[in-house]
TrEMBL record:
It catalyses: 7-phospho-2-dehydro-3-deoxy-D-arabino-heptonate = 3-dehydroquinate + phosphate. This is 3-dehydroquinate synthase. Its main location: cytoplasm. The lineage of its organism: Bacteria, Pseudomonadati, Pseudomonadota, Alphaproteobacteria, Maricaulales. Belongs to the sugar phosphate cyclases superfamily. Dehydroquinate synthase family. Zn(2+) binds at E182, H246, H264. Its EC number is 4.2.3.4. It comes from Algimonas ampicilliniresistens. Residues 67-177 form the 3-dehydroquinate synthase N-terminal domain. Pathway: Metabolic intermediate biosynthesis; chorismate biosynthesis; chorismate from D-erythrose 4-phosphate and phosphoenolpyruvate: step 2/7. Binds 1 divalent metal cation per subunit. Can use either Co(2+) or Zn(2+). Its cofactor is Co(2+); Zn(2+); NAD(+).
């Protein structure tokens, strides 16, 4: 399956399927004349799938850059290490820099590719479900600093995204569920029929890594994201819808502290539950609809608001975290709310009083 991201001269294909990794070499030959590829990955992925990527790139001169796993790599030190390795190996901007990993490796490698000699050919081969349905598509790249997450970065589109669902076989179930949260999100934003299909059983099949369900759900998710990105590459408008559940999630993540207690996708799952519950409370969305979203998530043992009790004890701190969200403008809190399943919209001035009452 191929999904096109329509960005004119910067447009690219997302190739999705079981065993696609074995066809990576041919795909690369169709986008570049260079036979050099730098593969940036982490130690965990390298131990599990290093042999498979080496074999897929056997026609290329390959340079491996293997970093420790973890969010820490999205830092100036991580960036410097990747760039240094590229210079030492004598890479040019016409050579390919390939991210082989989850969102951490993708964000770090994409940013490195964007600044390496003012921009080198960049390719994504995502290995987590979250990266396959979300972070590898759309061209947001970034590292973190002391002031917060993703504050230093660039919009830099890949030339190819290649998704092999077989890579997910080694991913821990907690990470699979975290990725599933972003899949449901696309249904809840504007694809009600996709939500129905997930609720009818495809969702459960995705979580058990059934190949057809995975291909279907990943394709729809990538098409949904590609659609929004093509309309609004730099998030001046509709792209903000992709943040459904994310303002609540962001506040929960800050409260929990980054580093394991709560995965991003887990916070997003509960955050979407909260966005629907809050919409219902405001009378924007029917109460049974919000209940349906919650039931869908809890039947799949995905986190909902009730599971976040340890991080919901202090409404004032949560609200102050929500005030710091990057989406906000002019001192107002921007929230993605919903009138129903597949009927999300951007609310640019959410009532702080209502929010505080809800969080209490
Ligand atoms: P991650 O990259 O940290 O990967 C999670 C863990 O899984 C890591 O320990 C990794 O080593 C391991 N792993 C990866 N692939 C594996 C496999 N196939 N088998 C076994 N283990 C594997 O986490 P993530 O959830 O993929 O990404 C999170 C990051 O993505 C965050 O930094 C977030 O900011 C970023 N993000 C970016 C965007 C974007 O648009 N650029 C969107 C969403 C999230
Ligand atoms: Zn997210």
């Amino acid at each position: 399956e191929v999904v096109r991201v329509d960005l004119g001269s910067r447009g690219y294909d997302i190739v999705i399927g079981q065993g696609e990794l074995s066809r990576l070499g041919d795909r690369l030959k169709s986008i570049t004349a260079s036979d050099r590829v730098a593969v940036v990955t982490d130690e965990t992925i390298h131990a599990l799938h290093g042999g498979a990527i080496a074999e897929a790139l056997s026609d290329f001169r390959t340079h491996m850059i293997i970093r420790p796993a973890g969010e820490d790599q999205k830092s100036m030190a991580g960036l410097d290490a990747v760039l240094d390795s590229l210079f030492r190996a004598g890479f040019d901007r016409s050579d390919t820099i390939l991210a082989f990993g989850g969102g951490v490796i993708g964000d770090l490698t994409g940013f490195a590719a964007s600044v390496f000699k003012r921009g080198a050919t960049f390719v994504q081969v995502p290995t987590t479900l979250l990266a396959q349905v979300d972070s590898s598509v759309g061209g947001k790249t970034a590292i973190n600093n002391a002031y917060g997450k993703n504050l230093v970065g660039a919009f830099y589109q890949p030339r190819l995204v290649l998704i092999d669902t077989n890579l997910l076989a080694t991913l821990p179930v907690r990470q699979i569920k975290a990725g599933y949260a972003e899949i449901v999100k696309y249904g809840l934003i504007d694809r009600p029929e996709f939500f129905e299909a997930l609720d009818d059983g495809i969702g459960a099949d995705v979580l058990s890594l059934e190949p057809n369900a995975l291909r279907e759900a990943i394709s729809v998710s990538c098409a949904a994201k590609a659609d929004v990105v093509a309309q609004d590459e730099r998030e001046g408008g509709v792209r903000a819808l992709l943040n459904l559940g994310h303002t609540f999630a962001h506040a929960l993540e800050l409260t929990a502290g980054y580093g394991g207690a709560l995965l991003h996708g887990e916070a997003v799952s509960a955050g979407m539950d909260m966005a629907f519950e809050f919409s219902a409370r405001l009378g924007l969305c029917p109460v049974p609809t919000a209940k349906r979203v919650q039931d869908h998530l809890s039947h799949l043992s995905m986190p909902i608001r009730a599971d976040m009790a340890p991080f919901l004890t202090d409404p004032d701190t949560l609200l102050s975290h929500m005030r710091q969200d990057k989406k906000n403008e002019g001192g107002n809190i921007t929230l993605i709310l919903a009138r129903g399943i597949g009927q999300s919209f951007i609310e640019k001035s959410a009532s702080e009083a209502e929010l505080k009452a809800y969080l209490k």
